[in-house]
Give the backbone structure.
Amino acid sequence: MRPGLSAKRLVVKVGSAVLAGEEGLDQRAVGEIARQLARLSQEGREVVLVSSGAVAAGMRRLGLKERPKDMPLKQALAAIGQPLLMAHWQEAFRPHGLTVAQVLLTAEDLSARGRYLNAKATLRALLDLGVIPIINENDTVAFQEIRFGDNDQLSARVAALVEAGLLLLLSDVDALYEEDPKQNPLARPILEVESVEAVLGHAGEGNPLGSGGMKSKLLAARIAGRVGIPTLLLPGRRPGALLEALAGAPLGTYFHARRRYRGEKAWLYGLLRPKGELVLDRGAVRALKERGASLLPAGVKEVRGRFSRGEAVRLLSEEGEEVGVGLANYASEEIARIRGRRSAEIEELLGYRYTEEVVHRDHLALKEEA
C-alpha cells in the first residue's frame, strides 16, 4: 500500500535528463509533463514543480557537450539557460490555461528562519491564486557552501517548506533496482522501501546531463522522510506515468515516511547545517527524551562551534549520537560560561538572563520523533 497517493499538495521534481533532447530542451517531454500536471490541477490538487534544466539548456545554446566543473562557467550557463527553461514551461502550460511563476532559491534562503517564512508565504499565495510555482536553485549566485547540491535535495526541502503530502521524483530511470540494470539486465526493481539507509548501497551513477544520480534521489527521499513526507521515484520519460502512479499503478519505487513534522520543527530538521553543537550529559538526554523537558544549562557538557542567540544547534549525546536540533536561547560564548550550572546562577554568571533554558522544548525537534 502506498499512502500519500491522494495527497492534495504535491511537489514534483523533473531532472535534466528527462527534459533534455539532442537540440536542447525536448518540448515534447516538457509538454507531456505539463499535460499531466494540468490534469492534477484540474482535479483540485496543488502542484509545485522543481525543474532542472537551466544549465543543460545553456550548454545546448552554446553548443557545449560536457557539463562544466568550473563554478563561474556553470553559473553563467545557468543564467543563459534559465529564461529558456521558463519559456518552455510557459509555452507548455499555456494551452491548459495555467499561469506559471519562477522562484529561485538558495540553501541559505531556507536556512534563515525569516527568509524561509517569506518563501513559504510566497508559495502559499501562488498556490492560492491557482498558479504553478516553478522552482530552481539560484545557480547564478549560489556558492559551494550554501548550495543544495542538486535539485533532488532542493525538492525535498521545498516539500517540507510547503508541507506537501507527497514528493515525486521524475527521472531517466524507472525505479531503484537491486543491482545496476546497466550491468545486469535481469536486475529486479524495488517497489517499496521502508528505510533509505537499508538501500543506499544500491545507488548508481548519474546521467552526465544532470548533477544527481540515484544516491542523490535516495538522500532526497531520506530528507523528505525525516519530516514525514513519502517519496515516489518514477520514469519521467514514460507518457502518463505520473497520472498512472497516482491512480495506484505499481510504477517506480515508493519510499515510506514515518511521523510527520510540521511548522518550525520541520524547518529545524530540514536545515542543511545547524550553526553549532551542544554535547549533553546522560541525565539531560533522558530528560529530553522521556519527559519532554527543555534543555537547561546544567545538562550541557561541551559547546562546539560559534553561533548567535536564536540560531539552530545540534544536540548530541556524550557518545556523539544526534539527539535532536533546537534553537539556542543564548550565544555559544554565553553557553560556554553557564554550562553545567544551575539556571538560578545564569544572571550571576552573565550579568543578565534571557530565559532559564538553553533550548526550550517548543523550539526543539528530537531525532526519534522523526
Q: What stands out?
A: DSSP finds 13 helices and 17 strands in the chain.
